[in-house]
Amino acid sequence: MEHDDISVGLDIGTTKIVAMIGRRNEYGKIELLGIGKAKSLGVHRGVVNNITQTIQSIQMAVDEAIAVSGIKINEAVVGIAGQHIRSLQHSDYITRPNSEEVISDEDLEKLEKQVYKLVMLPGEEIIHVLPQEFKVDGQAEITEPVGMYGGRLEANFHVVVGQVSSIRNIGRCIKSAGLNLAGITLEPLASAEAVLSNEEKEAGVALIDIGGGTTDLAIFKNGIIRHTAVVPFGGNVITEDIKEGCSIIEKQAELLKTKFGSAWPGENKDNEIVSIPGLRGRDPKEITLKNLSKIIHARVVEIVEQVFLEIKNYGHEEPKKKLIAGIVLTGGGAQLKHIKQLVEYITGMDTRIGYPNENLAGDSDESLSSPQYATAVGLLMNGLNKIEKNKEKESQSANAEPIEEEIQEDEKVEEPKKSIFEKWGDKFRDFLDNAE
Question: How far apart are alpha carbons 159 and 118 in whole angstroms?
């Protein structure tokens, strides 16, 4: 079996770690070859806080995926989230030495590289530099400057920044689990890749990914990412509250939430009661579903309001920035009953639940198109896109005119061109190697 077109997405979440192996079939859909998941121990609010446990969980998930697919994997694209992530807007420009030539990809890369040199706060590092729109010689609102003439190329960037130590810890875990880091992607961007359609990104949409430890937000408008944020609460705080409110153990609270929970308290009658076995010889506890959904409701409202605040910060009220496609909910938390109605009620925006099945091949397992796998599917897609880009570059350089080569045979020992991301990955790998 050929391995050069296969990629792996590794979603290191607060509640679970998912490893997904897949490739594109001839229709451009994603064929899942293997999936492994493990309970995530050692991640808190999206940040690794116990390296040993995280390594074990990663190994379990990866081994299971290898067992299912029969494919040996050696590298993965990993997601990053956590409360240390912040984003900022930045504009930068380059002056081109020769305005007689048209703008090429190299110019864009040069400009992007310049942004990576931005001085951050101590202990922070740039994860993504995402161009918003370009200006060429003062002409604004250009989305694709390649092929245009111009001397001054400037752009607005959405820059995503994270904590060096957190990024390092993730790299360390991956490495110790015997894998190479093929790339790091912000989780809401990966989820967006998996569940949003191009029309939605064009019209304006907010993706809310409710995970176990964090709730991630990505806002798109006119097809471009405009705002990202990570709110440090997720499904786990709901479970915590049920645990406290009903004095039961976590496992029971989690079951109650997923089986009987609802985000809308008006739904349940007063006399609907669940009985929970007591601990070791104690009497069973009786809990009314109404109280259960009141507890859940209070927490979900809090999470949604925090995220809505971020949507307002982006400027959703301004006519030009209106999110016409409303909100898409994904992540494990999106499986909570009536959460769509609650989000619509709080925000007044159209809402739908996002499933990652649009991009999966038709014969994929039903359970894998559940919203909780959105991030893993997105990371996998991200890895496959990278492979395809590299292949394109290789074929372009293979088709380039071979005439010069004969003349300058001995001088040309250049490395093949790498994308900024790979360079960053390489830098990052050296950085890890030296850190050991």
Answer: 10
Helix (H, G, I), strand (E, B), or coil: what is residue 11? strand
CA dihedral 375, 381, 383, 387 (to 10 degrees): 180
User: Letter for the amino acid at 144?
Assistant: E
Decide if 86-164+400-435 and 188-354 have a common fold.
Answer: no
The CATH number given to 86-164+400-435 is 3.30.1490.110
Q: Residue 228: beta bridge partners? A: 218
In sign, the C-alpha dihedral spanning 143, 146, 151, 154 is positive
What pLDDT sits at residue 420?
A: 52
Q: Is a pLDDT exceeding 90 seen at residue 357?
A: no
Which residue is listed with tokens 């961007």?
Answer: 189
| Three-state secondary structure call for residue 71 | coil
Q: Which residues on adjacent β-strands are paired with residue 423? A: none
Domain range summary for the chain, segments of one domain joined by +:
86-164+400-435, 188-354
pLDDT in the model for residue 395:
84
Task: Please answer whether residues 328 and 196 qualify as being in contact, where contact means their C-beta atoms are separated by less than 8 angstroms.
Answer: yes
The beta-carbon contacts of 235-242 under 8 Å, at least 24 apart in sequence, are 235/15, 235/210, 235/211, 235/332, 235/333, 235/336, 236/14, 236/15, 236/212, 237/299, 237/303, 238/295, 238/296, 238/299, 238/300, 238/333, 238/336, 241/295, 241/296, 241/298, 241/299, 242/292, 242/295, 242/296
Which has the closest alpha carbon to 192: 383, 378, 385, 382? 378
Of 109-118, 147-156, 286-295, 365-374, the poorest mean pLDDT is in: 365-374
CATH architecture of the region 188-354: 2-Layer Sandwich (3.30)
DSSP string, 214-270: -EEEEEEETTEEEEEEEES--HHHHHHHHHHHHT--HHHHHHHHHHH-BS-GGGS-T
- How many whole angstroms separate alpha carbon 126 and alpha carbon 163? 9
Q: What is the pTM of this model?
A: 0.86
pLDDT value at 406 more than 80: no
Bridge-partner residues for 209, per DSSP?
Answer: 216, 330
Cα 328 to Cα 41, 54, 257, 312, 353, distances in angstroms: 28, 30, 21, 16, 6
Using CA atoms, how far residue 273 sits from 73, 276, 286, 290, 380, in Å, is: 48, 10, 6, 8, 42
DSSP 281: T
Which of 75, 40, 79, 48 has the alpha carbon at shortest distance from 160? 79
